[in-house]
Specification:
The chain is mainly α. The protein is built from 2 helices and no strands. α1 packs across α2.
Amino acid sequence: MAKAREKVPKKPKEKAGQEIESLHEMIEKKAYEIHEKRGKQHGRDIDDWLEAERTIKQRKKF
């Protein structure tokens, strides 16, 4: 009879997933701040997101 393998938790992947989610949330919040600062102009969402991404990544030194 074959023994069942024990499942080992994949903590590094889970942690990486949480970090990515956290990074995404930080960028999302910053993009919204930029959007509000610009007077909530429509059609600038990509520009706002990219600016927020650059800002957050510089702060976190990615």
